[in-house]
Design goal:
Elements: E1 17-22, H1 25-36, E2 41-46, H2 48-57, E3 62-65, H3 74-84, E4 89-94, H4 99-107, E5 112-115, H5 120-160, E6 164-168, E7 174-177, H6 180-185, H7 189-192, H8 206-212, E8 224-230, E9 240-248, E10 263-264, E11 271-277, H9 279-293, H10 303-320, E12 323-332, H11 334-341, H12 343-358, E13 366-371, E14 374-382, H13 385-398, E15 403-405, E16 408-410, E17 413-421, H14 428-444, E18 450-452, H15 455-477, E19 480-489, E20 495-506, E21 510-512, H16 514-523, H17 527-547, E22 554-558, H18 561-565, H19 569-579, E23 587-592, H20 593-598, H21 600-612, E24 616-622, H22 629-634, E25 639-642, H23 644-648, H24 655-669, E26 673-676, H25 682-691, E27 695-696, E28 705-706, H26 707-713
Amino acid sequence: MAPEHSDQPFSHGLTARILVADDEPRLLNTLAALLRSRGYDVFEAHGGQKACDLISQQAFDLALLDLRMPEVNGFDVMARLAESQPDCGIIVVSGESSFSSVSRALRRGALDYIRKPFDPEELLATVESVIGKKTLLEAHQHIQMRLEKSEALHRYIVNSSPDIVFMLDQEGRFCFVNSKVESLLGYRPEELCGQHFRHILDDRDVTRGTLALKGPNITADNPRTLELRLKTRGSRRATRHFEITAFPIDPQTWPHSGVTQGGGNGNGARYYGTARDVTERKEAEAFINFQAYHDLLTRLPNRALFKDRLELAITHAKRGGQKLAVMFLDLDRFKVINDTLGHAMGDRLLQAVTHRLEKCLRKGDTLSRFGGDEFTLLLPSIHNHEDARQIAKKLIDALRAPFQLGDHEVFVGVSIGITIFPEAGESMDQLIQNADIAMYHVKAKGKDGYRFYSQSMSIDTANRLNLERDLRQALERNELRVFYQPQVCSRTNRVVGLEALVRWQHPERGLLYPRDFLPLAEETKLIGQLSERVLDQACQDVGHWIRSGHPDLRLAVNLSPIQVEHPRFVETLMQQVKAHDFPPGNLEIEITENVIMNDLEQISQKLRELASFGVRIAIDDFGTGYSSLNYLHRLPIHTLKVDQSFVKAIRSGEDGACIVNAIVAMAHGLKLEIVAEGVETDEQLEYLRSLGCHQVQGFFYGPARPAAEVSRSLGVTKARAASF
């Protein structure tokens, strides 16, 4: 078992442990007493064997040995010490004075040789000298060991650092770089050494990077820290962002020239630094910033960024006396497509719309997604209204072609309101608000177009807001009324059907007609509730008349595009019909050609479902839309309604009469029933009879009447409809 021994030297107040070995008891005791008198911790060994035993049990700093001892001599003890305690100092105290003995002792590691009889003072001085030298030697070894550990730790830290560690010479060339540069940038350390550090700087940061180390106030206590972009080798990961910290070093404080893993050894180093990869942080910051100012679905600027750019554009326009335009865009029919095909398809449609709109823009224009299916567009530095008009036309044309969403081909349009700075507003909020107002006027006039804002629109808007409020209250207060206009057989004057028409009994404005409030109901999405009320009341009234002796009486109901395009249209309609026990075969729904052509595939399916329940389908205002024979023979259409504008034109020689002739002939050829609207005179009635148009409606037979009057009049079936 090895004796315990401290790594620390025994100086600095620690007592030296001394082994004294001699075979003469008297001399042994005298020598031990002399050393103890000086405060040493002394162990006595009578003979060489006893000395070896103590060596195996204790650790010593110094041993005083006699060479001539029986059985185990001094040389044997020295050998034992060299084997088990090589750091123990040895002084020979012996009467043996031959040259060979002295030489042999010194070769074996003895630090000094004292002859017997010895001078006490000389012996003590020798012991103190040897112990002093040994203390210095051990202290030196200890410091050297600490230095080696420190250097090893430094090498480990540098080589294991997650950062690039580098040194530059006075000219800015690499004289050391650790191996981390290879994993982060793809360069081998040895190929960079000798190269100027600008070799790896991104071109955009070369000037800033080379000037950074020339600052007058850079010191070890005040290092220069900055962010630079560094180039990767080739195009593996392109440019990456690094946080660089660098400071000058004094050559005298860096004498090291040892080899460290990496490239170079630091000779001639004048700058020391680290480069930490912050690419992920920068990308995260950029993404967060992008999220704050962009719409993630379309990648367009959002409302906040648009307002920032508009504010800046207004400032520039004021300074330069220029004009700018703001457009407010609202997609037509988007909600229907979104509800029908689902939000995923709706998102794809918004992305496709964005792609087309962006192709129409000039450099410097800003297209923004303002929210939902609304977009805003900033056109800076325009010359006049015509510049904005041309862009608006391009935008409308760009969206005219159908969009392919999976297996579905869909159509959308766009309504655009335009404001010009400074005529239509001098502030950001005014321009956006007035463009929004102009856009609503486009919607009210039939959608898919553009209008410039004018002052009169604000007055209309105020009225519109009041009317919207009243309309919501009208639904709550049950102010809507259902009137009925008869559809009459032109040969027998018999009432064959009733068209349900809504009226609004406004508490202040009196009786309002559909043209006064239906466009507003569509804009505000109140048309659904309104239509449900009308259909409920009509099914209740007409159902009562059917059960009261008029089993063939037909109910005709106009439906808005929003209703028909809703995904649950058929289900909702049939639920209402069943709720009133209304016979489906007596119901005829009227829709326009445009509704069908907006999404022929979807609408066709719905119409076939309704036809399977016995519901009849009529095309309203026929001749004013697409008028495509293709869909007429493919769909379950029962009736064509000739628009009143053509009927009014029935006078000798007018083109309108020719159109009526063509429509009636077409209906006969397709075996469809035909109803002429807006019949007001005998001349019109006789002309239609001569063509074979046997169902008519209009003021000739009276205006639409409330249910009470219809109930009284239905008893007269053969008389001319003056009773209506």
